[in-house]
Specification:
The complex is a heterodimer of chains A (338) and B (251). Chain A is an all-alpha fold and 338 residues long. Helices cover 72% and strands 1% of the residues of chain A. Chain A contains 15 helices and 2 strands.
């Protein structure tokens, strides 16, 4: 093993791997999430919803944040992953880990097959194509009620996680812990991917696809690859959702799922991977709090937040948070959203 | 005797009624220092796009070191050793020069799709980044996002990126375009220092640059190759003076 010899080489190495080490603020983030599950057992269902939505938003961040590919069709993969896990469980293959893997795999397959549709055209084309695919799948699920239960959906029971921890209505805290574990592992994988040469190439494709091609990168294949991974993540989120609620219905394919997850990512900020989780937490907690007060009009406030966020700019919000954080702890927790 | 590094055979490209490239044939010897000149609208950019595979010819062939690459895509041609720079900067605004160069090098090594390795952990790649950074004088700016670099440095990064793909043939599309006078020397020095075994085709408006750099010049007019020869011959050619050099022609 040759060590980097010159000072410049050391600086280059440090610059390239600067995001590899887990920051203190990141560790604190995950510990806080875990602590929330333990500290608020009565809110475990809500926390679980946030974790699952966070994973779903992370799946969108992989294509939108890393590769710059917009999609309004993530619900397709959420739905397919959820139904795959649900159908499996209803046929007595009730092991959650198996269902999770199958859900992710089936969604990945669908992502791989539909990815070529994204290679041509601009953002608007992609929005329409991805939206179209999710509508198509929703209708397919509706038509094939022998498999999906149609409009009635599917009810099923699920075995304990790893054969030890029962999840569901009697074990909502276990469900939240299960979702936490899955989210954390998949997040760590995505984080690693972002720092790899593959992740760097995705950034290049996002920034300038023409030049990326002129460096010899087969940009089409890279987009297919990350879209497939993103689909697998969304499928895993769907499987988690199905398993922890033990019900699936056609609304999983609904347009509002794709739109909501886009909102979450925009609220939290795309490209640094934490945005989806933070956005999911803000979105769901706000919905919970506001809809308790005015059940009909909570979307008004979400809409207002979105408008303010776009007008004021997220950077200023983040600065505000950072300054507030620096009052609490001496060294400000700096995100690497750059 | 070795064959040409890059060869165009009867290249033709039609855009509707416009024949942008009209039966262009030429050859670039290994290690050549050739320039392509021509008035605005002569079809220089179209020709570059045909050679690099950004667009496909209506007729004709492109051969890279004797191999017909006409049917290959732009990125496949890059991997076979045909690289280019752009007249208008095509860089990655939010990536640093280190990241951009590292990317280009690892793509060339076929390690660009590694998804489980933290970037910067291959000493060979780091050493190569360092070499390019030093050679092109980008040390001071190497960690900044590219968009914050002075324009002249961005032009240098254009060339460094193309060189990072280790080309056999390099097409330089107006490398000095828009560079302020005080930074021009850096570009000229960088061009002079390009590896001698790489065949270079320089597309340029700047006649001083063309005549200092090139040992052979091709003249493109209205999509057709008007003439080709050494700088002396071209400078004296009456037709070239008429269509291109005008009254203040270089001589």
């Amino acid at each position: 093993m040759i060590a980097a010899t010159s000072e410049t080489a050391r600086r280059i190495e440090a610059h390239l791997s600067r995001r590899a080490r887990w920051r203190l603020s990141e560790i604190a983030f995950w510990l806080a999430a875990l602590a929330a599950i333990v500290a608020f057992p009565s809110r475990a269902a809500l926390i679980n919803e946030i974790l699952v939505a966070g994973l779903f938003a992370l799946s969108l961040d992989l294509i939108l944040g890393l590769a710059g590919i917009v999609s309004l069709g993530q619900a397709a993969f959420l739905g397919v992953g959820a139904y795959a896990a649900a159908i499996l469980a209803s046929k007595d293959y009730a092991d959650p880990t198996l269902g999770l893997a199958v859900g992710a795999l089936v969604a990945a397959l669908l992502g791989f097959v539909t990815a070529p549709l994204l290679l041509r055209g601009a953002d608007l084309t992609r929005l329409m194509v991805t939206l179209g695919v999710s509508l198509l799948l929703g209708e397919l699920a509706n038509r094939n009620s022998w498999l999906t239960g149609g409009a009635d959906g599917l009810n099923f029971s699920i075995a304990p996680v790893l054969g030890l921890f029962p999840i569901g209505f009697t074990g909502q805290r276990n469900a939240a812990l299960y979702s936490f574990a899955v989210l954390f592992v998949l997040f760590a994988v995505a984080r690693r991917l972002r720092q790899s040469p593959f992740g760097l190439a995705l950034a290049a494709i996002r920034e300038n696809r023409l030049r990326a091609g002129a460096l010899g990168i087969d940009t089409s294949w890279r987009i297919v690859a990350i879209y497939t991974v993103s689909a697998a993540y969304a499928g895993a989120a769907g499987a988690l959702l199905a398993q922890t609620t033990q019900i699936v219905s056609l609304d999983l394919f609904d347009f509002h799922r794709s739109a909501d997850v886009m909102l979450m990512l925009i609220i939290g900020g795309a490209g640094y991977l934490y945005g989806g989780i933070i956005g999911a937490a803000v979105f769901i907690v706000l919905r919970d709090v506001i809809s308790a007060a005015t059940p009909e009009y909570w979307e008004f406030w979400i809409g207002l937040l979105l408008v303010v966020l776009v007008i004021v700019g997220r950077e200023r919000f983040q600065d505000l948070v950072r300054r507030a954080a620096s009052v609490v702890v001496p060294r400000p927790a700096r995100g690497d959203a750059a | 005797m070795t064959g040409p590094a890059l060869e165009a055979r009867g290249l033709q490209r039609q855009f509707g009624a416009l024949l942008a490239t009209d039966n262009v044939s030429f050859a670039l010897k290994p290690g050549a220092r050739q320039a392509l000149i021509g008035p605005n609208g002569a079809g220089k950019t179209t020709l570059i796009n045909l050679l690099t595979g950004v667009i496909k010819p209506t007729e004709g062939h492109v051969l890279l070191e004797g191999r017909d690459v006409t049917g290959l895509s732009a990125n496949e041609r890059v991997r076979l050793g045909l690289s280019r720079t752009f007249q208008i900067n095509q860089l990655f605004p939010h990536l640093s020069p280190i990241e951009s160069l590292g990317l280009a090098i690892s793509e060339r090594n076929r390690s660009g799709a590694d998804f489980w390795r933290v970037a910067g952990t291959r000493p060979a790649i780091v050493a190569e980044i360092e070499d390019l950074i030093t050679r092109f004088g980008l040390d001071a700016d190497m960690q900044k996002p590219t968009r914050q670099l002075p324009y002249g440095k961005q032009r240098l990064l254009e060339i460094a990126l193309a060189l990072a793909t280790r080309p056999r043939v390099l097409l330089l599309d107006e490398p000095a375009a828009g560079v302020p006078e005080e930074e021009r020397q850096d570009i000229l020095a960088a061009l002079a220092a390009l590896p001698s075994d790489v065949a270079i085709l320089l597309i340029e408006h700047d006649m001083d640059l063309v005549f200092t750099f090139a040992t052979r010049i091709s003249v493109l007019v209205a999509g057709r190759l008007l003439t080709e020869g050494d700088p002396e011959t071209i400078a004296q050619d009456e037709r070239v003076r008429a269509v291109y050099l005008g009254e203040d022609g270089h001589g």
